[in-house]
Amino acid sequence: MSDLLVIDRVDVFYGDLQVLHQVSLTLKQGEVLCLLGRNGAGKSTLLKTIMGLVPARAGSIQLGGTELTTMPAHEVPRAGVALVPQGRRLFAEMTVAENIEIGLMARGKGRATREAVLDLFPLLRERLKQSSGTLSGGEQQMLDMARALCVEPDVLLLDEPTEGLMPSMIAKIRDTVVELRRRGVSTILVEQRVDAVLSVADRAAFLENGRNRETVDIDTLRADPAAIRRYVGVG
Predict the structure, then answer these.
(1) Residues ≥6 apart with Cβ < 8 Å to 152
(2) What's the CATH number where 28 sits?
(3) Is residue 55 a part of any domain in this protein?
């Protein structure tokens, strides 16, 4: 598999505080890469930097050879990257259908994309006229993912998608990530629940204090979880 997304020696600052140091990662076509690390390691910051929401002071982020760091943030989804941020940020007063419509507008997609997304989340079909603010936490997470998928991204960024969800909803999110991989979507997954990751990821990258310490195949990690204990503190 070829490298679809290439992050090369990226430095990021918040004011005078450097939060990412020379971070380099690659994401292959149809791969699920998990970012693991303790709170404050820089995982969410890296996703925001890919999206252009936080500027990179140095380094390069290329999607299929196209440089993302020089793009305005609103252009990054049009290039083929979608972010599902931590904490589910929907338009709560709008209906499920209206939230999905906003997602479609980002890249000019139409009915075929809408139907394909709803096929992934059939529960949302039953809720189209419902105000999104009245959905359960799991249903809101599904809607947030559905809206992101409306841009038909090449790369999907998921920031702690299972946080606070019931086991049945966690399983649904996991199944969706697997199905997206089958369809060729590449995913970077930030997750605290290591058990929710090992069954879906291809590789795991460990961030510590804003640095990528190592990247390992999941099979290697299953056989020897020492890196999980070292960088995450569990396992």
Answers:
(1) 80, 107, 109, 113
(2) 3.40.50.300
(3) yes
In angstroms, the CA 164 to CA 193 distance is 11
Enclosing domain of residue 24: 1-80+153-163+184-235
Domain count, the chain: 1
Q: What is the DSSP letter of 189?
A: E
Q: Give CA–CA dist 133/122, Å, rounded.
A: 18
d(CA 149, CA 103): 8
Tens of pLDDT, residue by residue over 198-211, are: 889 999 999 999 99
70: Cβ contacts below 8 Å, ≥ 6 apart: none
Using CA atoms, how far apart are residues 149 and 156, in angstroms rounded to an integer?
8
Sequence-separated (6 or more) residues with CB below 8 Å from residue 226: none
The answer to whether residue 52 sits within a structural domain is yes
Spatial separation of the C-alpha atoms in residues 44 and 139, rounded to whole Å: 22
Place of tokens 């189209």: 128
* Phi, then psi, of 88 in degrees rounded to 5: 55, 100
Is residue 90 in a domain?
no
Distance CA 72, CA 37 (A): 28
Both tokens of 138, joined, read 């799991």
Distance between CA 187 and CA 83 in Å, rounded?
10
Asked whether the CA dihedral 182, 187, 192, 194 is positive or negative, the reply is positive
**Residue 129: inside a domain, yes or no?**
no
25 φ, ψ (degrees, to nearest 5): -150, 155
- Give pLDDT, residue 1: 64
Q: What is the pTM of this model?
A: 0.93
